[in-house]
Each structure stands twice: as C-alpha cells, then as structure tokens.
Amino acid sequence: MRGTISITDWEWFQFLREQPGLDEVNFWRPTDLRKPHLPPGTPFIFKLREEFGGMIVGFGIFAGHVVQPMWLVWEEFGTKNGAATFADFLRNLERIRRDKLKPTDPAGSFELGCILLAEPCFMPREAWIPAPSDWKRNVVQGASYDLS
Prior knowledge:
This protein has 148 residues and is α+β, with helices and mostly antiparallel strands. It has helices at 10-17, 70-77, 86-99, and strands spanning 2-8, 24-29, 43-48, 55-69, 111-122, 129-130, 142-146. Strands 1, 2, 3, 4, 5, 6 and 7 form a seven-stranded mixed β-sheet that branches. It is globular. The protein starts with a strand and ends with a strand.
C-alpha cells in the first residue's frame, strides 16, 4: 500500500490536535490548487517542517479534493481548517502566501486547494516518529512512500 507524507503547518497541527472527536479535517494548500493523484482511501501522513522537529505526527485518510474561495472553505469547514476563527485562518494563510508572493485580501476571495481527510489522528508527542531516512529536505509538498 502506498501513502503520502506531506509537510504540515505547525499552527494547523497544534490547533487540531487539541480538538476532540474530529471526523474530518481540511488539509489546505494556500498556493497549490492541483488535485493530488491519490485514490480515495490513501493514507495521508503529517510531517512537521524541520524547524519544528521534522517528525511524523499524525495521519488521515484521503477522501477528496476541492478548490474553493477561502471564505467558502471557512464557511464549510470552520474550525476543521485548523483555526479558531476566520481571522486566525486568514492570518495563517496570509503568512504562507506572503512567503510565496501570492496576494490575499481581507474578504478571503483567493482560492485554496483543499485536501479532505477523514478519520484524522494527531499523535501525542511521545508517539511521534522520525521521517523516513531517505526523506529529501527539499521536498515542498510531500512524497509518496510504500507503507508495507
């Protein structure tokens, strides 16, 4: 079985791991609108950026992908976007989009790529595991791995 290991936003992870009973989450991509080539049911594994330890910290099951305006993403998923309020969500997206020289606006009219994940699991700190030994540090989005 193949799975995808993807770079995870620290604030998204921190917020969602404190939320009880999540059945789904939105793994948003603020600058990448491309649909991932994943069949539904593919394991989608969360890896922190190197500055936050570079560890594997959780996973979900790929359920689908949509591209929508940010305001509609908030309306549909609310706190399952990894933020307590629309303003917090916008601030998280602006931080990343600014680094990539992408525009934003206070109304949230810019589009997001949304990877819809079912059955998310956010592991406690003592269960985090190192990234695969062949993980390339220059990976921007994610990489596919044989999980067997």
